[in-house]
Design a protein that fits this description.
It comes from Duganella fentianensis. This is Putative zinc-finger domain-containing protein. InterPro entries: Znf_put (IPR027383). Pfam families: zf-HC2 (PF13490). By secondary structure, the protein is mostly helical. The chain has one domain. The chain is about 70% helix and about 0% strand. The chain starts with a helix and ends in a 7-residue tail after the last helix.
Length: about 70
């Protein structure tokens, strides 16, 4: 018997965190983005995590690199 959360539309919090993190390194597929958005609509904790990751991403882009750029 398969876990309905693992195969259903709404991912678990663990999978949502993985998708948020992977989305920083690569473009998520349409299905991944849709599943993540569905989860974020109902999960305040993961929504906060997503916001924190976005803030870190923005801060790192503004931080000068070690090579003086």
């Amino acid at each position: 018997m398969t876990n309905p959360d693992k195969t259903g539309l709404k991912p678990t919090c663990r999978e949502a965190h993985r998708l948020v993190s992977e989305g920083m390194d690569r473009e998520l597929s349409f299905v991944e983005r849709t599943r993540l958005r569905l989860h974020l609509m109902v999960c305040d904790g993961c929504t906060r995590f997503n916001g924190q990751m976005a803030l870190l991403r923005t801060a790192m882009r503004r931080f000068p690199d070690e090579h003086g750029k």
